[in-house]
TrEMBL record:
It comes from Solanum tuberosum (Potato). It is a multi-pass membrane protein. It is found in: Membrane. The chain crosses the membrane at residues 13-35, 47-66, 72-99, 111-142. This is Tetracycline transporter.
Amino acid sequence: MDAICPSQDKCSLAIYLSGFQQAIMGLGSMLLMPLIGNLSDVYGRKALLTIPVTLLIFPSVIMAYRRTTNYFYAYYVIRTLTGMISDTGIQCIPIAYAADCMSEENRASAIATVAGVGSAAFLCSTFVVRFLSTAQIFLVWFHSYYND
């Protein structure tokens, strides 16, 4: 928010841009998911799962490099484009992989387990963001990453 509305507590431009981004990413995902599904049939689920995960790195690198207005807009465009592939690809491909690896009688429980773990992770991350400060979030990540 500092990049587009410096020293302001509220920024309507950020809200509008976020809504526009979500709409474009949703439409793009709807159009790209059949293509991603077909590509995962051809090249394999594991191989195609690396693409959305890798694409998620680029927008973060842009914002980590510099938080000026120009870099924000570059982040915004790259995040919108990569979000079309990454947001739904990360959710759908593991479910398809679980369906491929399980026998027909265990398939429903495997899909439910994969979807449940993803939903629980989303819920826990929402709670972490709401109740911990930014400094505490990085401390939690740092200790969990380096104490394992």
